[in-house]
């Protein structure tokens, strides 16, 4: 029972990790809580579902379709809504982000309807349905697939951030945006790339959770988005490995809390952890203390 | 603050006083008018925190819910009359405002916004799950309407004048307080908290005052709502309500008292129009929120100071 819950929690944590890195990368560079990120995750699931059912694309192609659309959408949202406000007060950008989130959420409601959609049985690869029993733990092939995808993507992300030129530019921007600009970094391009990367990972998470719970609905991005943000806070916002660790801790806490404490307060556990961290350890588990400059 | 001509306020007040007669006491129009004034009250209450002190409150609906449930439960369980339930709800709201505010004093900007959001989500979660107290999703039906002079309120008219009194009182209080020492302290905190502290302003005290006042107004509006609609359930206090109220003060202008009222008038009317319009296109009425999202994005992009901006203050960059 305990091992089973931990496994479920890790699967959930992997999904949160994919979303959380999107929050943390954007926050690290432009200090904006991109409220619309949860909506990108939701749209990824819807777009892939549409590609599967309406365009009859095979699963991997549909996944890529959703991911590509969301990467473009993320870049577009930044260019249209956030970029003009780069020099505006922080509050303005935050309000814009909430506006974009509400806009996209209701757009999805208009386009796909408010009801929960599910992936038809025949479009999900048969491979995902296999289950193994290890001791008293039931592992589904889908869970293995999700964890493998998360691991592969995180290693790719690590490679991009640490080994590529763009990654170095991202790290420079996160350290000091103005200074990076003075050193000849094309800041707008770096921010666009960050949005594309974060949105793509978020879309993968959306498709995976859509298949995992077999449910896609316009409000799915709202709670998941906040929980992933909580994970980013937990790990110290702006810190990529921290966000991943935070996501796994949060996923496990949620699964265990729902099983042993109260399933009614499932979402409350994430909120409570987030609020307690913000109040008592706002730098997160791994974050470094930053001096407030006057 | 730039003084607006006095006749404008007097004219608006006279219009509001005679409004039900002007529309021939039409029940639907009066209902919408009560809704406008209720949201104007909420917008004025919310305005105190993001507008006057510059802290983004994303969970205002939490206090609205606290007020509604306090008043509703007091009336249903102990037969407390509305006139006593209202101040008690306000008091309970203020208490929660302080409880939420005290630990967040050090927080600024984004983190404050996130904590307020989490707070309101937790309030709704408690209302939904603690069925022994709140009956959960089934809600609390049969909250008695207020009574005065031995007769209980019937129709929209008495509610209209009650909420109009509250709104007018709040407008006067907001304007007086903004022009007072307290108001100046809030504006100083909004412009630069560190500088305000350095000038000898007791930042913590003034922030807590703002939180308590704002929360008390929200809770009073909730108490009014409970006794007006006579039914409350957790569904009425979703996050979207906070966004809608925030959208009103964004539209009218952060910190602007006439702006908050204008924002409520425009958005509640728009909301009612969209409700019927969207239905004709076969869309769920909740999709009207797409316009509120759009309003927020467009306002921040093209007119961040709002439709009726506060003139004399200088907005700082970051």
Largest interface: A-B, 46 and 49 residues
The main β sheet of chain B shows up as: 2 strands, antiparallel
**What is the percent of helical residues of chain A?**
over 70%
Q: Spell out the helices and strands of chain A N to C.
A: HHHHEEHHHHHHH
How would you state the average pLDDT of chain A, rounded? 89
Mean pLDDT of chain B: 87
Termini Cα gap of chain B = 22 Å
Would you report the number of β strands of chain B?
Answer: 2
Query: In what range is the share of β-strand residues of chain A?
Result: under 5%
Helix and strand content put the structural class of chain A at: mainly alpha
| Rg on CA atoms of chain B, Å | 19 Å
Q: Which overall shape of chain B is indicated by the principal axes computed on the Cα atoms?
A: globular
SSE order of chain B, one letter for each helix or strand: HHHHHHEEHHHHHHH
- Global morphology of chain A: globular
Q: Specify the structural class of chain B.
A: mainly alpha
Chain oligomer state: heterodimer
Strand-residue fraction of chain B?
under 5%
How many extended strands of chain A? 2
Spans where pLDDT lies below 50 across 5 or more residues of chain A: none
Q: How are the strands of the largest sheet of chain B arranged?
A: 1-2
């Amino acid at each position: 029972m305990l091992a089973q819950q931990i496994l479920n929690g890790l699967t959930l944590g992997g999904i949160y990790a994919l979303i959380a890195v999107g929050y943390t990368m954007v926050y690290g560079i432009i200090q904006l809580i991109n409220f619309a990120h949860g909506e990108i995750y939701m749209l990824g699931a819807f777009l892939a579902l549409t590609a599967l059912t309406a365009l009859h694309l095979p699963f991997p192609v549909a996944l890529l379709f959703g991911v590509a659309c969301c990467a473009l959408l993320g870049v577009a949202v930044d260019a249209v809504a956030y970029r003009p406000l780069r020099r505006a007060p922080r509050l303005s950008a935050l309000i814009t982000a909430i506006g974009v989130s509400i806009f996209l959420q209701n757009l999805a409601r208009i386009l796909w309807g408010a009801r929960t959609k599910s992936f038809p049985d025949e479009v999900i690869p048969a491979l995902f349905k296999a289950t193994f029993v290890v001791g008293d733990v039931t592992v589904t092939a889908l869970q293995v697939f999700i964890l493998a995808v998360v691991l592969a993507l995180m290693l790719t992300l690590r490679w991009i951030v640490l080994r590529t030129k763009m990654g170095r530019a991202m790290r420079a921007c996160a350290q000091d945006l103005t200074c990076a600009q003075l050193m000849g970094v094309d800041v707008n391009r770096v921010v666009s790339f960050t949005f594309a990367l974060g949105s793509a990972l978020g879309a993968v998470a959306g498709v995976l959770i859509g298949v995992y719970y077999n449910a896609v609905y316009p409000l799915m991005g709202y709670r998941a988005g906040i929980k992933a943000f909580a994970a980013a806070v937990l790990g110290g916002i702006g810190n990529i490995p921290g966000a991943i660790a935070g996501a796994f801790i949060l996923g496990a806490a949620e699964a265990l809390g729902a099983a042993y404490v109260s399933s009614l307060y499932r979402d409350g556990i994430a909120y409570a952890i987030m609020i307690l961290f913000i109040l008592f350890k706002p730098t997160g588990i791994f974050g470094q203390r930053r001096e407030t400059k006057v | 603050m730039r003084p607006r001509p006095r006749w404008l306020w007097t004219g608006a007040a006279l219009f509001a006083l005679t409004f039900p007669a002007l529309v021939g006491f039409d029940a639907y129009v009066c209902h919408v008018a009560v809704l406008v004034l209720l949201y104007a009250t909420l917008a004025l209450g919310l305005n105190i925190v993001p507008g006057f002190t510059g802290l983004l409150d994303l969970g205002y609906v939490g206090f609205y819910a606290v007020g509604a449930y306090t008043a509703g439960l007091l009336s249903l369980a102990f037969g407390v009359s509305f006139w006593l339930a209202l101040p008690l709800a306000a008091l309970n709201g203020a208490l929660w405002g302080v409880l939420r505010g005290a630990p967040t004093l050090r927080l600024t900007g984004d983190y404050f916004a996130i904590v307020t959001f989490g707070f309101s989500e937790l309030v709704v979660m408690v209302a939904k799950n603690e069925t022994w107290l709140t009956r959960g999703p089934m809600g609390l039906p049969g909250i008695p309407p207020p009574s005065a002079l031995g007769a209980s309120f019937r129709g929209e008219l008495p509610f209209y004048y009650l909420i109009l009194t509250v709104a007018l009182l709040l407008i006067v209080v907001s304007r007086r307080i903004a022009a007072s020492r307290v108001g100046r302290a809030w504006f100083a905190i909004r412009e630069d908290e560190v500088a305000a502290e350095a000038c000898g302003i007791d930042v913590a005290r003034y922030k807590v005052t703002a939180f308590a006042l704002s929360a008390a107004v929200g809770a009073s509006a909730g108490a009014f709502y409970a006794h007006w609609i006579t039914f409350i359930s957790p569904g009425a206090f979703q996050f979207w309500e906070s966004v809608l109220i925030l959208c009103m003060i964004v539209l009218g202008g952060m910190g602007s008292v006439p702006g908050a009222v204008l924002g409520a008038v425009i958005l509640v009317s728009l909301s009612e129009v969209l409700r019927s319009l969207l239905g004709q296109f076969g869309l769920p009425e909740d999709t009207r929120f797409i316009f509120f999202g759009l309003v927020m994005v467009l306002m921040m992009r093209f007119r961040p100071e709002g439709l009726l901006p506060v003139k004399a203050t200088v907005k700082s960059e970051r």
